[in-house]
TrEMBL record:
Coiled coil: none annotated. Residues 76-218 form the N-acetyltransferase domain. CDD domains: NAT_SF. This is dTDP-4-amino-4,6-dideoxy-D-galactose acyltransferase. Keywords: Acyltransferase, Transferase. It comes from the Bacteria. InterPro entries: Acyl_CoA_acyltransferase (IPR016181), Bact_Acetyltransf (IPR050832), GNAT_dom (IPR000182).
Length: 218
């Protein structure tokens, strides 16, 4: 019922697991199985009927999808970045996660959000997945597995918003993916992040999944 998550457990310093909620899910059985975990993420296709429970709703994740059929006009303002992690890049990575459940859940009190997103941008740099706008106005990361691409982090500096950087970053990521023979792109965001959803829809992305996420804390 609960799958241990060694990476999260090691990074956070306590036992973390995940539970994919199915039709046979039982809250009482889950609570019994969760006794050996400090934190468990629960993922459900539908809202869970929980009352007076340590299981708390924390996020509604939306996943968008698009077939990549042609390249956009290349922007000279965005380029692949192969350098080291800078303070500005780290700040952009953290800015990309302000709607994240790791940022909004008040039970994270040991810099879990900062640790996770720093590790995320470090990994993207190692794998050459970072695209950076000029003057570090924004960044996007794009990972590719076979013919499927996925945008991970995307953020624009606060003083650069409203200038079209979000659209340019997405299109640059699409070009990057197409050049590596990807055929599709997915992007996940939070339902609370209304500007992101509006941007993705305007660029032809379709909503393909809604996932209700809960956190159990012991």
């Amino acid at each position: 019922m609960i799958t241990p998550l060694p990476f999260d457990s090691s990074l956070f310093g306590y036992a973390v697991g995940k539970c994919m909620v199915g039709e046979e899910w039982s809250q009482s059985d889950f609570l019994e199985a969760a006794r050996s975990f400090r934190l468990v993420y629960l993922f459900s296709e539908e809202p869970l009927p929980i009352e007076n429970s340590p299981i708390q709703p924390i996020d509604l994740r939306l996943t968008y999808f698009k077939n990549l059929k042609r390249q956009n006009a290349n922007s000279a303002e965005i380029h692949s970045y192969a350098g080291t992690l800078t303070e500005n890049l780290l700040n952009l990575a953290l800015e990309s996660g302000v709607f994240s459940r790791f940022h909004t859940d008040p039970n994270f009190v040991n810099l879990e959000f900062e640790k996770l997103y720093q590790r995320w941008i470090e990994k993207a740099l190692t794998q050459h997945e970072v695209l950076l706008a000029k003057n570090q106005a924004g960044l996007v990361t794009c990972s590719i597995a076979e013919h499927d691409a996925q945008i991970g982090l995307i953020a624009v500096q606060k003083d650069q918003r409203g200038k079209g950087w979000g659209k340019k970053l997405i299109q640059a990521a699409e070009n990057f993916a197409i050049q590596k023979e990807a055929q599709t792109m997915t992007i996940a965001t939070q339902a609370a992040n209304l500007p992101a959803s509006a941007l993705y829809k305007s660029l032809g992305y379709q909503l393909i999944e809604r996932k209700y996420i809960y956190h159990f804390w012991r």
